[in-house]
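B., you asked whether I could sanity-check this one before it goes into the benchmark set. Here's the sequence:
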Amino acid sequence: MDNFGDPGWFHHQQIAQLWGLVALRLASSPIVEFNATRYTSELTKYLKSLDTLAKDRLGGDSESIKKVINLDPLGNAIANLTKYAKELDDRANELRNNPKSRKCYFNMFCVCHSRRTEIEQVNEAYLKFERSFIGNGLPGRPVYRHVIYAPGTWEGYAGFTFPSIREAIADQKWEEAHEQIDIVAKLVQKAASRKHF
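And here's what the prediction gave me:
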């Protein structure tokens, strides 16, 4: 490190400072800094990439592709999750802007109350939002349980999106792809149906 990797250890120092600032920001923010709406917009992009991959493997038009593989259940689940994510983010933003409630009596006496319980509910909803995507494990690789992101089978640690579906389509295992679409769609729908705030 002294001669080639990081002479003077300046990069190490900068990284430590960056992680320290991230930790301070997370510790001082009453509401978890998470954007569920952006997450769902990325899921929509990943779904489009699956559709493109399926068209690549099958050729032909959309209607003939739907007879072999139908991504609509996953698309509907993502649409429902998008609605829930918007509600959750709107609630979180409202609590960030108004962390205390104010109640006035007789237009003279006003009392401020902390909205700690509501803030904790939003934080818990964000936590459960991400945890909802943990399944029973990918086919042939049960150690990887996240259905949205996982390393590819042959790509080392390069990340894949919707890995179980993507790999089944790439290998043209249509029955497995159909099963995985159902599994992932149910998990995404389950995440969309959790109203914790």
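One thing to flag: DSSP finds seven helices and four strands in the chain. Otherwise nothing jumped out at me.
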